[in-house]
Amino acid sequence: MLDSKEQNYSPKQAVDKEWLVLMATAKLQGLTTEQVREFLNQKKNNS
């Protein structure tokens, strides 16, 4: 039987959590949301 955490899990929540961690880390480094978006777009285009 799944516990309540596993029952309520969705892939979107995982992405949201990853984005939250990424943005918190970026803020600590002094980066803006726009700088993070540009970096992710460059990384996506280079792969």
SS elements, strand count: 0
Low-confidence stretches: none
Q: Specify the structural class.
A: mainly alpha
Helix content: over 70%
Please describe the biggest sheet, giving its number of strands, its sense, and whether it closes into a barrel. none
Mean pLDDT: 84
- Per DSSP, the total helix count is 3
Global shape:
flat
> Taking Cα atoms only, what radius of gyration do you get, to the nearest Å?
15 Å
Distance between the termini: 40 Å
Order of helices and strands: HHH
Q: Note the beta-strand portion.
A: under 5%
Counted up, domains total: 1
GO molecular function, one term: protein dimerization activity
Domain Sin: 6-44
Organism: Saliterribacillus persicus
Pfam families: SinI (PF08671)
Features of this protein?
single chain, 47 residues, mainly alpha, 77% helix, flat, SinR/SinI_dimer_dom_sf, SinR/SinI_dimer_dom, protein dimerization activity, Anti-repressor SinI
Question: What topology does this entry show?
Answer:
Layout lengths: L3 H4 L3 H18 L4 H14 L1
Word description of this protein:
- The chain has 47 residues and is mostly helical.
- The protein has one domain (11-46).
- The protein contains 3 helices and no strands.
- The chain has helices at residues 4-7, 11-28, 33-46.
- The longest helix is centred in the middle third of the chain and has 18 residues, at 11-28.
- The chain is flat, with a radius of gyration of 15 Å.
- It comes from Saliterribacillus persicus.
- One of its GO terms (biological process) is regulation of DNA-templated transcription.
- This is Anti-repressor SinI.
